[in-house]
């Protein structure tokens, strides 16, 4: 068997328990001692593939500029400089006909980082005066500041003019080569450029120890003073690279006959003594009956337990850290637990939303869950506003008391799934006024999974008929915009007497089911196709304005004026009289503002002006 291969053994599902499917899949192990001392292989690239380095594991750091050390190479993401072939990764520095050097610098940053454990790289080094290959680690997040404050761990460094001398070092704020205080160990490996050798560190909270082929040659202990001496309590990522020249690598020049240098890496492995934090990965929205694959990080020597909502069917169990299922009819959580001889670890679960693509029109959003329970709910209200929801003849009776319209009172209909309405853009609803005040403005918002709505294309009703008969209100949306995704709708909100145009009052109305269909599906003519409120009903001048705003009304009554910012924020208020219809502009920044007038009869007039001082 290939020495680099990992052996996996699988056991069939164990059974079903209490409404949750539990799938246990056990792996074999490559080293019995690892199972006994609970050392886990948490990262491995064996390079048993061809082409570019695995993008699931590796990123590139690219560019030139010396990299802080007066190095000559420019790092690229080209296959000329890094590639996998014949079971090894090659980092290939090349000199062009113009004399310029290119190379590669591969990092696990953004892919994987570790705090403590054993990091092991089997590699064959290049030779040539001026080469500077390195296997090293840097902090994923520089919590203590820029280099060297947050630390650096050099697992292996080699400079070409000192052939066979392998160096291991740490750099911190207190110990670094700028101050000449770095902590370094050296070992001679005469054939480092001819044979593969294993370069590794063992890193614990107390000490970092360096090895070549299992032989210790250096260690650095935690002095327990401050981060300045020991910043190694944070996750670090791995770096593989070849530099050319530089302050150290080029200290004795660069061989003028040198045209290339190759570092070969046979494998990279990271072991940890405790199970790592991990998360379930996979799609976060699925359709009923859809096949979906979920996975977690693969670790040898552990058992995996998967759990799903009850009606999910497991259809493939041939991989311990990966499972394929046929999704059921409910949203829910996908969970996974790792179990070893020493410990258990539960993954961060993945929340799965049911994704519905309508197939038959109309799609009906029921006002009632059953005959007695409203599907709509009343979110927590502020400003003294309140709602009462009750089942009614054709839907939900909505009783409301609005005392503060500026708090934007609303009720909510959660869909319990994600629905794609890109093709079902026409919405209609049956509504009738029952008693009390007639709502002066209603608005239906369709909320996407990111909590966004389309504020420029509104299903707004500003003329509600009060004859206690059912009337159909309908609106066709134009479709998704950059900030709102109509293919991922999760909620409908109904605002009642809201915002700067909303009136105080108490009353009730009956709300039927919402129907959604493609444009043109409904052949009957609705009673009303509401448009957005026309704010031009209030004539304001001059516009732009500097000092005073003048307005014209058809009645001769006194009233109150209010000024709001474009986002609805209240600015100021005052009173006007029938004889003096003007507003002194307060000290405002330039921009668009809304003016609301409320006369003695409670009628509301809205206009907009641009302040330009």
Automatic annotation (TrEMBL):
SUPFAM superfamilies: Concanavalin A-like lectins/glucanases (SSF49899). InterPro entries: Beta-glucanase-like, ConA-like_dom_sf, Glycosyl_Hydrlase_16, PKD_6, Secre_tail. Residues 47-276 form the GH16 domain. It comes from the Bacteria. PROSITE patterns: GH16_2. One of its GO terms (molecular function) is hydrolase activity, hydrolyzing O-glycosyl compounds. GO terms for biological process: carbohydrate metabolic process. PANTHER family: GLYCOSIDE HYDROLASE FAMILY 16 PROTEIN, GLYCOSYL HYDROLASE-RELATED. Belongs to the glycosyl hydrolase 16 family. This is Por secretion system C-terminal sorting domain-containing protein. It comes from Thermophagus xiamenensis.
